[in-house]
Design goal:
The protein is α/β, with parallel strands linked by helices and 282 residues long. The chain has eight helices and eleven strands. The chain has an eight-stranded mixed sheet. Helix 2 (29-40) packs across helix 7. The longest helix has 24 residues, at 252-275. It is globular, with a radius of gyration of 18 Å.
């Protein structure tokens, strides 16, 4: 079983800008890439999952550094980022769009690039596709139940959420920190996630996530020529600090373990659904 899909090389990295790291998740790689893209002209618009009312995720076209920083941080709930892709091109007039999404969203955008029905004049405007590691996601009401009923924090008071050390973490605006064991969040997962076989966003130009790297750093897979060119531009500009992935703990072994676990467990679910005649997405 191939855990990672095709990639050129993997590294561990973090943004060199303290402000980006403070506002972002883990090493702040997506925010650093977006901001570098906007400031260098490699991108002129980026699609983000912004923070809406009561910590819901709202897809948005960002064209400034402030908008990117305002939206920074993982939401752990669904954000239909593809829904604003045409708006980025046709309403904002962007010619070089950056996109970030979960593995399923990256698969969708690759299908759109290949069969652009309904997306006329859009595919050639996509300059970078970034993917984030994802085991599963939560619908908003599921996330709300976890945060309000299990952690005792109102959604309107949430400042940040995180996953690490086997727990789901909630940070309030008032300094409270509450946790719930990840195994206790499973009932609230989005059921559609259980047929997905992709943990590391295998079809992205660049994919990233915290797993495999030390706290405050991110693991990155550079997968395509476009992704490699963008990564080299970031490295030459000094916007990211890099470590050899073989020199960090826990390293790619943990990423491989989780990626294979997703493929094995969801492979069984797919086989079960096929056996009883339920449809599969691909």
């Amino acid at each position: 079983m191939d855990p990672f899909g095709s990639y050129k090389f993997a590294i561990s990295a973090r943004a060199t800008d303290n402000q980006i790291r403070k506002k972002s998740q883990d090493g702040g790689i997506v925010s650093a890439a977006y901001i570098h893209g906007l400031e260098s002209g490699l991108l002129d618009g980026v699609i983000v999952a912004d923070k809406g009312e009561d910590f819901c995720a709202i897809p948005k076209v960002a064209t400034t550094v402030d908008e990117v920083l305002s939206a920074a941080g993982t939401k752990y709930t669904t954000s239909p980022n593809l829904s604003v892709l045409k708006s980025a091109v046709r309403e904002y007039g962007c010619d070089k769009v950056g996109f970030v999404g979960t593995p399923c969203q990256v698969q969708s955008i690759r299908k759109m690039l290949k069969y652009p029905i309904g997306y006329r004049h859009v595919p050639d405007k996509i300059a970078l596709v970034m993917g984030i590691f994802c085991m599963e996601n939560f619908p908003y009401n599921g996330l709300k139940t976890i945060i309000e009923e299990h952690c005792g924090i109102k959604m309107e008071d949430v400042a940040k959420t995180d996953i690490g050390k086997g727990k789901f973490w909630v940070y309030s605006k008032w300094g409270d920190v509450k946790t719930i064991k990840l195994k206790d969040t499973h009932p609230y997962e989005q059921h559609a996630c259980h047929v997905c076989m992709d943990y590391t966003a295998e079809l992205a130009d660049i994919s990233t996530g915290s797993v495999g790297s030390p706290d405050g750093w991110s693991t990155i897979f550079i997968r395509t020529a476009k992704g490699e060119a963008f990564y080299k531009a970031m490295e030459e500009a000094g916007v990211i600090e890099i470590k050899n992935i073989d020199d960090v703990k826990p390293g790619l072994g943990l990423v491989e373990k989780l990626a294979n676990s997703k493929k094995e467990n969801n492979g069984k679910e797919r086989a079960h659904r096929k056996e009883i005649g339920l449809p599969l997405p691909y």
